[in-house]
What we know:
Elements lengths: L1 E6 L4 H13 L3 E4 L11 H12 L5 E6 L3 H7 L7 E3 L3 H9 L5 E5 L5 H13 L6 H7 L7
Parallel strand pairs: 1-2, 1-3, 3-5, 4-5
Helix pairs in contact: 2-3, 4-5
Bound molecules: D-ribose (RB5).
Amino acid sequence: xxxxxxxxxxxxxxxxxxxxxxxxxxxxxxxxxxxxxxxxxxxxxxxxxxxxxxxxxxxxxxxxxxxxxxxxxxxxxxxxxxxxxxxxxxxxxxxxxxxxxxxxxxxxxxxxxxxxxxxxxxxxxxxxxxxxxxxxxxxxxxxxx
Length: 145
Ligand code: RB5
């Protein structure tokens, strides 16, 4: 699978570790994040990742910032994005099985790296349940007036 990953300064360390982990599992990874811990603005990295997911350049995305909220809020401005914030493996599972999140967002300052990699594993492996969840995600996009 081709996975895009983005981060701000709070997510640099986890990003590099996750890239190594994902490549080790045979995935191709495209890095849309900053590679330094110099203070920066999450939106500068979230928008390019969102566009890459929307246009099919990558299959899915992973986004990391301090709380995860800056990334999630920015990513979800894009109509083709369902970015889900997760903080444990149960939520990471549900954000795929119920919400079909095409971007997993994680809060680097509030979860261990061990938890982050477990969440990525869970989210990638989980299957969308469809059914009532299909109906629900179909209602997410803003309708044209
Ligand atoms: C950076 O200090 C922090 O604001 C950012 O990583 C994120 O938590 C914003 O939502």
